[in-house]
Design brief:
- This protein is α/β, with parallel strands linked by helices.
- Helices cover 48% and strands 14% of the residues.
- The protein is built from 17 helices and eleven strands.
- It has helices at 3-26, 31-34, 58-67, 70-84, 96-114, 122-138, 143-153, 158-164, 179-186, 194-200, 204-231, 236-246, 252-257, 275-285, 317-333, 361-370, 382-393; strands at 38-41, 47-49, 53-56, 260-266, 296-302, 304-310, 342-348, 352-358, 402-407, 421-427, 441-445.
- The strands form three sheets. Strands 8-7-6-9-10-11 form a six-stranded mixed β-sheet.
- A hairpin with a 3-residue loop joins strand 2 (47-49) and strand 3 (53-56).
- Helix 4 (70-84) crosses helix 5 (96-114) and helix 5 crosses helix 12.
- The longest helix is centred in the middle third of the chain and has 28 residues, at 204-231.
């Protein structure tokens, strides 16, 4: 490296560190996030990150600084926000062109809402009208919701390239690379965590980085209240995005299996079958095995439970039907039906509106075909629990495993814990829903998860 190139490298690194320190002074709750990167210089005229390295071209940094000293500051915060919101750890089924733009819009909106003079740039002014339109349509501005909006609004990806120019700060191609590809293209060192990666497989480094940023996001969420008090207001988009990435993810399929009970099903029990005696008999007596396989096997299948549906005016009938359909699909796909089951589907607003007993798959299919929503009044959860208790007293259930209550959550809860597991399932796009009693399980699903 000649003296001129060395000087450029040193100046660019100084600009990056100055940008980081400028943000630290204004955003103390970002201290861990801003100091998380290892700096890595490359020849390509770009800026990018994989969550571990901040990868940059010195000339690119200095040219932007020459245009406006605020550009490197905004760009630095831009890539930090990508990491905090874990945008690089995306669902692999997402279309890259839409996801890249959605992530850029989400972080640029957060930066703008923070209102820092040190991050005001020309591109911020170019974004105003587009972000206003998205906020009017969505309310929340998270990458996942913007992705769905872009996908439906711009079915032709060609329109996306021009829009992204208003929000572009960094190259996202590294998000989609393997560790080997990153090392080969950018000359990244394997790093101190490579031994762990080799133990865990090719995705070990990626998992390690994802966990680190998850911890940072969770700490930031705790610190947000302090920041809000100091600034006089809570930064809405920042809070929304943090809630989106730190909320606990629930697998409704796995949850439904919690209601499984032991029962006998007509199925060959290969686990308790001795093939040695079986084949020896065939060899010795030709077509006569010494032992036959057991016809019965103890398997876990869902037998008795209750689905309660909140049919108050605030709960969408279409979502209710989709939830019932999803529950049915899970039961079928996991072989969760006995030949006979004891499932009660209860519709209730402030009082019981309808009860349907399901005893077999055909009953469930008929219910889905003819289902109508009854009620649309206020919300009170207590009548359902009182009704279920009366069923138990009348021996309608012999081994009730649990109750799943699909609701928006705004209603009166029972004061006493029932003798069976209870889950309240919320459909909530705002990541903001009521608390449930300590004895209940709380699941939060998004519309696209149903």
């Amino acid at each position: 490296m000649d003296d001129k190139q060395k000087q450029l490298s040193e100046l660019a690194l100084d600009v990056l560190k100055l940008s980081r320190n400028t943000l630290l002074v204004n955003l103390r709750f970002l201290d861990m996030a801003l100091s998380q990167f290892d700096y890595h210089e490359i020849q390509d005229n770009t800026l990018l990150t994989d969550g571990k390295y901040l990868i940059y071209n010195p000339r690119h940094i200095l040219q932007n600084y020459k245009l406006a000293k605020e550009i490197p500051v905004r760009d630095y915060l831009h890539i930090v926000m990508h990491c905090v919101f874990r945008h690089m750890f995306m669902d692999p089924t997402l279309e890259r062109v839409y996801w890249d733009l959605a992530c850029d819009i989400a972080v640029e909106n957060v930066i703008t809402e923070l209102g820092l003079k040190s991050t005001e740039t020309a591109r911020e002014r170019q974004q105003v009208a587009f972000i206003a339109a998205i906020k009017k349509e969505l309310g929340m501005v998270t990458a996942e919701k913007i992705y769905a909006y872009l996908h439906s609004t711009y079915p032709d990806p060609k329109h996306i390239a021009q829009i992204r120019g208003y929000f572009y700060a960094d190259n996202h191609e590294i998000w989609y690379m393997t560790e080997k590809e990153k090392v080969e293209k950018y000359g990244l060192s394997k790093g101190k965590d490579q031994s762990e990666e080799e133990k865990q497989g090719s995705g070990g480094q990626r998992v390690y980085i994802a966990v680190a940023w998850q911890a940072i996001a969770e700490r930031m969420q705790v610190d947000m209240e302090t920041f809000g008090k100091r600034a006089g207001t809570e930064p809405g988009a920042m809070s929304q995005n943090l809630k989106a990435v730190t909320r606990e993810k629930y697998d409704y399929t796995a949850f439904l299996k919690k209601f499984a009970v032991m029962g006998e099903a007509m199925k060959i029990n290969n686990d308790e079958f001795d093939y040695i005696f079986y084949t020896y008999g065939l060899e010795l007596y030709e077509k006569m095995p010494l032992i036959e396989p057991l016809e019965y096997k103890e398997v876990k299948r869902i037998k008795e439970f209750v689905i309660a549906i909140d049919t108050s005016g605030s709960t969408s009938g279409e979502l209710v039907q989709k939830f019932i359909q999803k529950t049915y699909n899970i039961l079928c796909s996991t072989e969760s039906f006995f030949s006979k089951i004891n499932l009660h589907i209860i519709q209730c607003d402030a009082k019981i509106q309808e009860v349907k007993k399901i005893t077999c798959r055909e009953d469930f299919e008929e219910y889905i075909r003819t289902m109508k929503i009854h009620g649309l009044g206020g919300t009170d959860f207590r009548p359902v629990f009182e009704y279920v208790e009366s069923l138990r007293q009348n021996k309608e259930f012999t081994n009730l495993k649990g109750l799943i209550y699909f609701t928006d959550g705004y209603g009166a809860f029972p004061a006493k814990k029932p003798d069976y597991d209870t889950a309240f399932v919320f459909i909530d796009d705002a990541y903001n829903n009521p608390d449930v009693p300590p004895w209940a399980i709380k699941l939060v699903l998004q519309k696209d998860e149903i």
